[in-house]
Amino acid sequence: MGWAAVFGAVNLLALIAWIALIALPRWPALLSAILYLGVGLLCLVYATGLIGVVSGLIPNAGGGGADFTTIPGIRAIFATDAGVTIGWTHYLAFDLFVGIWIARDADAKGISRFIQAPILLATFMAGPLGLGIWLLLREPAARRQGRFR
User: Fold this and answer.
1) Which of 37, 129, 140, 147 lies 20 to 30 Å from 46 when distance is taken between CA atoms?
2) Is the pLDDT reported for residue 63 higher than 60?
3) Angle between helices 81-108 and 113-144 (to 10 degrees)
């Protein structure tokens, strides 16, 4: 399987998980499936790709070791299909994990799903933007409940 196929597969997996998180009832089994099948599989793909490329077990056109300490080093990592796919999978996994946390936290605070939906979409499309919006909105909701956690 080439990097383009892996890229397509992780995008499809994340999209299905996000649609389920935003549009479907939040049954405990569904949230567990999104966490373990969505985030878990994305983490597995990420770890396998990263370890494989860094160790040399998986070919990485452009090769070389991973240098996370300089801008040119990071640029070199993302200059390959492997680097882009592994990096993108990292974003997908973390953003989905954050989305699950936002959904659970918002449900616990009684925040309407209509308010949650655009926040979750923002998290899906631009992770830290959605998280930042949620953090601004969650604080007053937590205070209204008399708890801040």
Assistant:
1) 129
2) no
3) 60
